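Why does residue order matter? Because the sequence determines the fold. Keep that principle in mind as you read this record.
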Amino acid sequence: MGISYTLENVLLGSSLLGVVAGVVGCFALLRRQSLLGDALAHAALPGVCLAFLLAGSKESLYLLAGAMATGIAGALFVLLVVRWTRVKEDAAIGIVLSVFFAVGIVLLTRIQRLPGGNQSGLDRYLFGQAATIVEEDLMVMAILGGAVLLVVALVYKELKLLCFDRAFGASLGFSMRGLEVLLTCLLVAVVVVGLQTVGVILMVAALITPAAAARQWTDRLGAMVLLAGVLGGASGAIGTILSATAPKLPPGPTIVLVSSAVLVASLLFAPRRGMLWAWLEERALRSRIRRENLLKDLYRVGERERAWDRFVPRPALMGLRGQGALEIERSAGHLVAAGLAERSGDALRLTAAGLAEAAQVVRKHRLWELYLARRLELPTDHVHRDAEAMEHALSEEAVDGIEELLGFPKEDPHGRLIPARRRP
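Structure:
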């Protein structure tokens, strides 16, 4: 299937918007100014209406110039209110969003009552109408978008300081206030680029969604900015193609839905931050804790009976922690498979390797109990529960440090022998 002239323009415009919005949105997201883009988008609407009334023309250049003027005015209002009054930034953003948008709706209603006002097409700036993009619009978007990307590349290091260490940047002689104004102007430019494609209402999604998705995959700002640009551009292209293949499916909302789907996938499946991986890690941690607790219980039974070669029946193990048979069996299966325990019917006993592993778990528990009793001066009958939790989080290096700090003790606060450190 060939690409028509209109589809080509929409495809290029949507992809360009996605790249530019994704890049600049990263800095807004990291500075916790996600709603600022939304406020600036709403502030642009009265500018579009005023430009139409003053110029008497719906040429995109005039309308976008008006949008930029009131967008900058809204941004300056936020900055001035935050600096010179006691009004917080979120409240200032809310004021700009509601007041400017209300003015825009009033002006839009007034225009539609004028002769020929219904044919002005200004309502497309509310929800976007990417299908109306022509070559001249695309040229304006390319110039603005290219300028935004060039500025970001030139002041990337300074913007990084603004996001992560404002005080250090100021100590180097950079004007943090000036950089803040510059970033706000970049946001205004992105809003102007995207008004015709996704509109006032959905502009914040184009700004923030690709950046939020990229944040799930990396901890490095450079990689995040590049990935956000790629995700934004791909979402714009895919959303445009989907809207072209389905009848009466508007491109703007479709682009936002595609980028939202990318965000949901990132929240679920991104390594380290994804909800799925977090659930798997939490499940693995719970399983490890249950195995270590069973090792420790087998050790304590053998220690109490002074016999490590006896099998401990499952009912006895169930009574130690109030666990069910299924939970004990699941943990026992892991220990047997790892060669740390062996079974006889429903009874278990530690192997030589299991005894050595269990001794290290007990060592962590008893050293931490002693640390709490000596250093924090907690009563000895209050330290067991805390030690039960910490023993699974302490590394071997941390345990060695605690042992050295306590003077290499031999007994815990209850007079029980602390197992020796495992030799490498």
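The chain has 17 helices and two strands.
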